[in-house]
Write a structure and sequence with these properties.
Order of helices and strands: HHHHHH
Number of helices: 6
Number of strands: 0
Largest sheet: none
Structural class: mainly alpha
Radius of gyration: 17 Å
Strand content: under 5%
Helix content: 55-70%
Number of domains: 1
Shape: elongated
Distance between the termini: 33 Å
Protein backbone atom coordinates (compact mmCIF):
# COMPACT_ATOMS: atom_id res chain seq x y z
CA UNK A 1 0.00 0.00 0.00
CA UNK A 2 2.93 2.46 0.38
CA UNK A 3 3.24 2.53 -3.43
CA UNK A 4 -0.41 3.52 -3.65
CA UNK A 5 0.08 6.41 -1.24
CA UNK A 6 3.15 7.56 -3.17
CA UNK A 7 1.17 7.40 -6.42
CA UNK A 8 -1.60 9.55 -4.93
CA UNK A 9 0.90 12.15 -3.75
CA UNK A 10 2.83 12.12 -7.05
CA UNK A 11 -0.35 12.51 -9.12
CA UNK A 12 -1.41 15.49 -7.01
CA UNK A 13 -5.08 14.47 -7.21
CA UNK A 14 -7.75 14.12 -4.56
CA UNK A 15 -9.10 10.60 -4.16
CA UNK A 16 -11.99 9.81 -1.87
CA UNK A 17 -11.74 6.34 -0.30
CA UNK A 18 -15.44 5.67 -0.84
CA UNK A 19 -15.02 6.44 -4.56
CA UNK A 20 -12.17 3.94 -4.80
CA UNK A 21 -14.21 1.31 -2.94
CA UNK A 22 -17.19 1.89 -5.22
CA UNK A 23 -15.10 1.65 -8.40
CA UNK A 24 -13.45 -1.57 -7.18
CA UNK A 25 -16.83 -3.04 -6.23
CA UNK A 26 -18.27 -2.13 -9.64
CA UNK A 27 -15.29 -3.72 -11.38
CA UNK A 28 -15.72 -6.91 -9.37
CA UNK A 29 -19.46 -6.92 -10.17
CA UNK A 30 -18.57 -6.85 -13.87
CA UNK A 31 -16.07 -9.67 -13.40
CA UNK A 32 -13.04 -7.41 -13.95
CA UNK A 33 -10.05 -8.64 -11.95
CA UNK A 34 -7.45 -6.34 -10.41
CA UNK A 35 -4.98 -7.24 -13.16
CA UNK A 36 -7.53 -6.56 -15.92
CA UNK A 37 -8.50 -3.26 -14.29
CA UNK A 38 -4.84 -2.30 -14.12
CA UNK A 39 -4.39 -3.01 -17.86
CA UNK A 40 -7.47 -0.94 -18.69
CA UNK A 41 -6.25 1.96 -16.53
CA UNK A 42 -2.78 1.79 -18.11
CA UNK A 43 -4.34 2.11 -21.57
CA UNK A 44 -5.97 5.46 -20.72
CA UNK A 45 -4.35 8.69 -21.95
CA UNK A 46 -1.78 10.05 -19.47
CA UNK A 47 -2.86 13.67 -19.48
CA UNK A 48 -6.06 13.64 -17.41
CA UNK A 49 -6.94 13.54 -13.73
CA UNK A 50 -9.39 10.74 -14.55
CA UNK A 51 -6.61 8.52 -15.87
CA UNK A 52 -4.42 9.31 -12.85
CA UNK A 53 -7.27 8.41 -10.50
CA UNK A 54 -8.00 5.20 -12.42
CA UNK A 55 -4.34 4.17 -12.19
CA UNK A 56 -4.26 4.87 -8.46
CA UNK A 57 -7.47 2.89 -7.95
CA UNK A 58 -5.94 0.07 -10.02
CA UNK A 59 -2.93 0.00 -7.74
CA UNK A 60 -5.18 0.05 -4.68
CA UNK A 61 -7.31 -2.75 -6.17
CA UNK A 62 -4.21 -4.91 -6.66
CA UNK A 63 -2.99 -4.18 -3.11
CA UNK A 64 -6.47 -4.85 -1.69
CA UNK A 65 -6.70 -8.17 -3.56
CA UNK A 66 -3.27 -9.23 -2.25
CA UNK A 67 -4.24 -8.25 1.30
CA UNK A 68 -7.48 -10.22 1.11
CA UNK A 69 -5.61 -13.26 -0.19
CA UNK A 70 -2.83 -13.06 2.39
CA UNK A 71 -5.45 -12.74 5.15
CA UNK A 72 -7.42 -15.66 3.72
CA UNK A 73 -10.48 -13.39 3.49
CA UNK A 74 -13.25 -12.66 1.01
CA UNK A 75 -15.32 -9.50 0.73
CA UNK A 76 -18.98 -9.46 -0.30
CA UNK A 77 -18.13 -9.00 -3.98
CA UNK A 78 -15.77 -11.99 -3.83
CA UNK A 79 -18.59 -14.15 -2.48
CA UNK A 80 -20.63 -13.25 -5.56
CA UNK A 81 -17.74 -13.70 -8.01
CA UNK A 82 -16.68 -17.06 -6.62
CA UNK A 83 -20.30 -18.21 -6.36
CA UNK A 84 -20.83 -17.45 -10.06
CA UNK A 85 -17.53 -19.14 -10.95
CA UNK A 86 -18.54 -22.22 -8.97
CA UNK A 87 -21.94 -22.45 -10.65
CA UNK A 88 -20.39 -21.97 -14.10
CA UNK A 89 -17.82 -24.68 -13.38
CA UNK A 90 -20.56 -27.07 -12.20
CA UNK A 91 -23.52 -26.53 -14.56
CA UNK A 92 -25.16 -29.74 -13.29
CA UNK A 93 -25.81 -27.97 -10.00
CA UNK A 94 -27.68 -25.17 -11.77
CA UNK A 95 -29.96 -27.69 -13.50
CA UNK A 96 -31.23 -28.82 -10.08
CA UNK A 97 -32.14 -25.32 -8.86
CA UNK A 98 -35.90 -24.82 -8.98
CA UNK A 99 -36.28 -21.58 -7.01
CA UNK A 100 -34.07 -18.69 -5.98
CA UNK A 101 -34.95 -16.44 -3.06
CA UNK A 102 -33.68 -12.90 -3.61
CA UNK A 103 -33.51 -10.59 -0.61
CA UNK A 104 -33.18 -6.84 -1.20
CA UNK A 105 -33.70 -6.99 -4.95
CA UNK A 106 -33.04 -3.27 -5.29
CA UNK A 107 -29.34 -3.70 -4.53
CA UNK A 108 -28.57 -6.41 -7.08
CA UNK A 109 -25.46 -5.91 -9.15
CA UNK A 110 -24.97 -7.17 -12.70
CA UNK A 111 -23.13 -10.18 -11.34
CA UNK A 112 -25.99 -11.11 -9.02
CA UNK A 113 -28.55 -11.09 -11.85
Amino acid sequence: MPDTLAAIQAADVQLDASLAATVISQAKAKGISAQEFSKLAAALPNNTNHSAIQRIIAEAYIAYTKELKSSNCLDFDDLLVYGVELLRARPRVVNNIQHVLVDELCVLSELEC
